[in-house]
Amino acid sequence: MKSPLRRRTAIAALLLAPALTACGFSAQTDQVYQPAVGVNDRSGDVDILNALIVSGEDGSGTFAGTLVNKDTTQDATLDTVSGPGITASRTTVDVPAAGNARLAESGDLTLEGSSIKPGTFVELTFSFSNGQTTTMKVPVVEATGDYQDVPLPSASPTSSKSPKSSPSSSPSATATQ
């Protein structure tokens, strides 16, 4: 016959084992974890992964994400990217069958619009040649840290003229010349 102490120890071990092993209590190992800032959409034939906009200045940015074509026989093309008040400089991007297009590395897709500001989300609609249309809210991040190497759009002529013209028109800049 077992002693009462052994019996109590065995019962305590059985009760504590699930808690100590993180089984069945919504532990972190049971949760989906996405360590990246960008958002994902896997609803169509072309997955849009880690989608975000890297911005060097308010009003413009580079779409940094990966397009993955799950169709193994047909190539896909990103035909248009649009959003409220957003224009894209280049919208066609080829995605080979069973392949991908890494847009953060190429800087091929740049966007402009007043809603593009670091710390905000921008609604974008992606339309593909296979008929897929995906709308998602994409975060805008600053071009620092992990994103400092993403190619940014070149400064627009209006934005590059204003900083240069303001110092020369100020009285203090004229006096020093």
UniProtKB/TrEMBL annotation:
Keywords of the record: Signal
Where is the secretion signal located? 1-27
Positions of the UniProt region annotated as Disordered: 147-177
The protein's superkingdom reads: Bacteria
Q: Mind telling me which SUPFAM superfamilies this protein's record contains?
A: DR1885-like metal-binding protein (SSF110087)
The name this protein goes by in its record: Copper chaperone PCu(A)C
Q: What is the lineage of its organism?
A: Bacteria, Bacillati, Actinomycetota, Actinomycetes, Propionibacteriales
Q: Where is the composition biased (Low complexity)?
A: 153-177
